[in-house]
Amino acid sequence: MLVYRRETTPYKHTESIQLLWSQIEKLKQDGWEVPMLQKPYKMFGSELARALQHNLPRFSVPPASADSNATYIHPRPLFRLWMEADDAVSPNLPHPASISYFILQDIICDIIDIYEVNRKECARYLVGLYNNFEIATFADARPPRVPVLGPDGQPISSADGDVVMVDGMGAASMTSASGIDGEMTMLLDEDSKSGWRMYDVIVEHLFGQMLCLPSPPYRQVYYAAALAELCKADHERFPGVLARAVDTVFRRVHLMDVECVYRLWTWFSHHLSNFGFVWNWRDWDFALTLPLLHPQACLIRETLEKDIRLSYFERIKTTLPDEFLSMIPGEPPGTAFKYQSEDHPLHGSAKLLLEQLRQKVPGAEIEERVLRDVKKKADEKGVSIPEQEDTAREVLVQCVLLLGSKSFSHVLNVVERYLSVLQSLNTTAEARLHTVKIVASFWRNNTQVCVQTAYYGQRKPLHRIQEYNVTRDFRDVWTSCFIYQFLGILLDKLLNYRVVDPVSVIAWIFEQEQIENFGRSFLWEILKNTLNKVISRVAQIKSKLEAAQHTYDENEARRNRTNRTVDDVDAKQRDLDTIKAVEISLQSVTREQKEVFMGVFTRFVQLLQNMLHGFQVRGADPNMDWTYWWAYGWFIEVMRMYNQEIATFLVTLESVVFTDQIDPRILSVWKEVKILVDRKNVEVVIR
How many Å separate Cα 654 from the centre of its chain? Predict the structure, then answer.
């Protein structure tokens, strides 16, 4: 479970225990000397020499027992941010093979773990990390200083004009106005000092935890908050280090695990929202010439899209250089009401239906009057009965979405009011899939399709693209733009209301037209949310069954302590009936969960098999295709994330989906997930 894929790892991965043992052996060769550690005992050398000496008994580790309740700490894979090559040496960083690196890692991780409940304290202790080690261990071991502000928001100064400064540990001092301007000069001088860069080490370990697979130790928002607090705690130095780290990781994203790339753009968009959305985008202008699904291009696009969610379209647009405007739609995303034009044959019916919905006409009347009229018009044109149902469904869903497009509460109110009508029109699998497609197509941006060419550096309408002899790799095509936030939330609510089901959502995700969106976060967020909802239903029913069983046991114990009556017999039967009903519900949702996961893995395997077969026919290398890169990466992530659910129907999956006829590259993932399920290895490296 490495951040980098095995075949593209920029450095050799060493097991944590093996690495620690080699560090200890090296420490023994050095006479157990660790220069970075403080040695206060040296001040008492003469006293200690005269003190009574004690012989310590030999310590032996007790053997592990299967019956023991002891919990062992699992080693985490090492993540290197700054030193790529194994033989790289830097005067600014401890080498990962040294015991000093292990000590720093241990202390930094302890601070992160202990102060998870308070991000401000976590940042304060990390900024003061140098206090725990010998002087000159770190080149940047200087408390950050900020001016003390008065009630008017201006720095407090003395009669001589000196400004009152305070460092991160609370120590106050006086500095002249020119001294404040000279702080940057001091920062530049730090590069010439000997010692390690403390903030480089801190950022490396924070990123290592945030990108830890299969999941980070804490929620991702904690790491985002901690990094933001560190920027505020030392606004002079830490933001520059973090910017270098972001740029370093950005240039490696094509080597990383897909889930790590997703976490990066999720964190980065959140971080930018805390600091005015300011970033030097021009440093990444080379990404404008990359293919649409290249991870670097996707990271920029997804970061901007999430920032639009966190702010608003015009705000983000003003922060971008002109050449990066191709990474966002030309206009704010909006709705696409199919029956807007008066020339549409069903414009009148849709207009009437909207008026009826605004007047809150009962659902039965809507179904009786308007929808029957829509079907009648379709029948007059010789449309088949199934197509008549599709037309009525589309008119209703489009009008419901348009009426509720102002906000989430508006659309939910309309859906709840006409829930019975929506459910009656979605009784088949085909109908539910059709509804998902209608919802997805409604929130599209109807702006003109534009092409951004890095060669010409300007936006041109699609119908004029023939004027330029450019390849797809040199353009960024915005065919349409969903309001993905609305789409994801509404599909979630329709799943709750049982208007659509998980199978229909998954079928839509794996349709051919969605392949071009494999590098977009919204698609996989919807998939994960759908799978999590299925799992949540099973967990809820299990909880109800446990509660019902507990109630029965308590009532039965009470009945056994007294003489049974006819009422007690009836009460016992009611308790048993309740348990039986919950058990039936549990069987139903468990069966649904199995069908959903079987469907997901079947579609993943079919998709990857078809892609690999196509590459073989064309004689192409699949590793050079970014669509395959995303599909294969998300396949790994889904298998890895839901390994506990896979364990419940392992035999069925192996006999139905992951057969011997499957491509070895797909089967290799399955075999490694089986190892993870069996818990034979603490750490599994998934290619």
Answer: 29
- What kind of fold does domain 347-445+481-509 have according to CATH? 1.25.40
> 23-37, 154-168, 324-338: lowest mean pLDDT where?
154-168
Contact in structure between 339 and 347 (CB atoms under 8 Å): yes
**3-state secondary structure (DSSP) of residue 623:** helix
Q: What is the pLDDT of residues 287-344, one digit of tens each?
A: 999 999 999 999 999 999 999 988 988 999 999 999 999 898 877 767 788 888 888 8
Q: Are 389 and 435 in contact (CB under 8 A)?
A: no
Q: How many residues does the chain have?
A: 687
Rounded to whole angstroms, how far apart are CA atoms 608 and 666? 8
* 659 Rama sector, left if φ>0, alpha if ψ -120 to 50, beta otherwise: beta
Domain 521-678: give its CATH code.
1.20.1050
> Quick one: which of 388, 365, 389, 368 has its CA closest to 378?
388
Whole-angstrom distance, CA of residue 190 vs CA of residue 249: 24
663 contact partners, CB below 8 Å, separation of at least 6: 608, 609, 612
Cis peptide before 62 (omega within 30 of 0): no
d(CA 324, CA 429) in angstroms, rounded, equals 42
CA gap 676, 213 in Å, rounded: 13
**Residue closest to 405 by CA, chosen among 488, 486, 495, 526:** 486
Rounded CA separation 51/136 (Å): 32
Q: Three-state SS for 560?
A: helix
How much of the chain, in percent, has pLDDT values that exceed 90?
47
Q: How far apart are CA 297 and CA 281, in angstroms?
A: 12
Encoded tokens for 287: 């990404």
Give 476's strand partners: 452
The secondary structure element, H or E, covering residue 166 is: strand 163-167
Opening angle at CA 686, ends 684 and 687, nearest 5: 150
**Which secondary-structure segment (H or E) carries 606?**
helix 566-618
Q: How far apart are CA 648 and CA 628, in angstroms?
A: 29
Which of the four CATH numbers 1.25.40.180, 2.60.120.280, 3.90.1150.10, 1.10.10.1100 does domain 6-40+76-137+196-275 have? 1.25.40.180
- In angstroms and rounded to an integer, the radius of gyration of the C-alpha atoms of the chain is 31
Residue keyed to tokens 């789409």: 487
CB 639 within 8 A of CB 670: yes
Tokens of 285: 């202008």
In the chain, ranges of CATH 1.25.40.180 domains: 6-40+76-137+196-275, 347-445+481-509
Going edge to edge, which strands form the sheet with 172-175? 145-147, 163-167, 172-175
Exposure string over 394-410, b if 16+ CB within 10 A, otherwise e? bbbbbbbbbbbbeeeee
Write out pLDDT tens, residues 458-500: 333 333 323 323 223 322 323 333 356 788 889 999 999 999 9
